[in-house]
Amino acid sequence: MAGEQCSSAEDFVKICRQKTKAINTIFVKQAQLDVTKSMLEKSFSNLSSIPDIRNHHHFKALHKDIIRYGQYSTSENQYVFRF
Fold first, then answer.
1. CA 5/CA 17 separation, integer angstroms
2. What is the per-residue pLDDT across 1-55, written as a single tens digit (0 to 9) for each?
């Protein structure tokens, strides 16, 4: 952005659009972020968490709201979780 004055996020997007067409940039207003954040927090607040999920890398949907998971696809220990 050499030679350009950038003092806000809107300026940044404007300069990016002038400098290149290869990268798509958009400006998102704070109000849009706040609405989306609120909606996502509401959605995620009702989720059940899978125990010890960080140690598991294989997940398979068995049915709506039921999964089987294990450390790997070939692991002897597989678990079933119902949401």
1. 14
2. 567 889 999 999 999 999 999 999 999 999 999 999 999 999 889 888 888 899 9
In angstroms, the CA 8 to CA 22 distance is 22
Domain ranges of the chain: 1-47, 48-83
Give the phi and the psi of residue 15 in degrees, each rounded to 5. Answer: -65, -45
Complete edge-to-edge strand list for the sheet that includes strand 58-63 = 58-63, 66-70, 78-82
Distance of CA 56 to the CA centre of its chain: 19
d(CA 33, CA 69): 34
Amino acid at 34: D
How far is the C-alpha of 68 from the C-alpha of 78, rounded, in Å?
Answer: 7
